From TrEMBL:
The keyword Protein biosynthesis does not apply. Keywords: Hydrolase, Metal-binding, Zinc. It comes from Comamonas odontotermitis. Signal peptide: none annotated. SMART domains: Lactamase_B. This is Glyoxylase-like metal-dependent hydrolase (Beta-lactamase superfamily II). CDD domains: YcbL-like_MBL-fold (cd07737). Residues 13-193 form the Metallo-beta-lactamase domain. InterPro entries: MBL_Glyoxalase_II, Metallo-B-lactamas, RibonucZ/Hydroxyglut_hydro. Gene3D superfamilies: Ribonuclease Z/Hydroxyacylglutathione hydrolase-like. Pfam families: Lactamase_B.
Length: 212
């Protein structure tokens, strides 16, 4: 079975998630934005073997620790989609702007595209490309446990910002309604910030996409 544990990191309280297969105890880390010591403690506490980094998108609070962690542990960097290359290129400027530690540059080992899959141990998750917050944003759907790791596409009661470079509000709404909603009302999503919710609840209650 697939398990996960969420670790809020950085001053932005970004929900970094550890996901692992309980048959192998092999794990991936989704969006290691920073606080790598804290992430390391959790990996050790849970008895996991970290095998990969998965990125939803390349904003500093989600990707800031990626280069350092990948080099330190010799991990592949999986995702996001190529549309976020300019955000990766701009991570040093982002780190200065928001007061983050210096960022180690990186190049993803594998870009992700809509319909791809990622595997950890004996567990497979589906990838959907959900642009709007950033052009290369992806989400990771685990239908076997009715969970989806959505980065900054959707939040409990809100949606991702689209006022950053190459953000697009209509694209974001389309990503939510056309790619997230079909996963089912029962699906619990883990957002990039704040508490979990379900797609069904947000379809009814979210003021930005409610009733869609």
């Amino acid at each position: 079975m697939l398990h996960y544990h969420t670790v809020p990191v950085t001053q932005f309280q970004q929900n970094c998630s550890l996901v692992w297969c309980d048959q192998t105890m092999e794990a991936a880390v989704i969006d290691p934005g920073g606080d790598l010591e804290q992430i390391g403690w959790e990996i050790e506490r849970l008895g996991l073997t970290l095998k990969a980094i998965w990125l939803t998108h390349a904003h500093i609070d989600h990707a800031g620790g990626t280069g350092e962690l990948a080099e330190k542990m010799q991990l592949p960097i999986i995702g996001p989609q190529e549309g976020d290359q300019f955000w990766i290129d701009g991570l040093p400027q982002q780190s200065q702007m928001f007061g983050f530690p210096p960022v180690q540059p990186f190049t993803p080992t594998r870009w992700l595209h809509d319909g791809d899959t990622v595997t950890i141990g004996q567990e497979t998750l589906n990838v959907r490309h959900c642009p709007g917050h950033t052009p290369g944003h992806v989400v990771f759907h685990a239908p076997q446990i009715d969970r989806c790791f959505v980065g900054d596409v959707l939040f409990a009661g809100s949606i991702g910002r689209t006022d950053f470079p190459q953000g697009n509000h209509q694209q974001l709404i389309d990503s939510i309604t056309q790619r997230l909603w079909p996963m089912g009302d029962q699906t619990v999503f883990i957002p990039g910030h704040g508490p979990e919710s379900t797609f069904g609840r947000e379809r009814k209650m979210n003021p930005y996409v409610g009733g869609t």
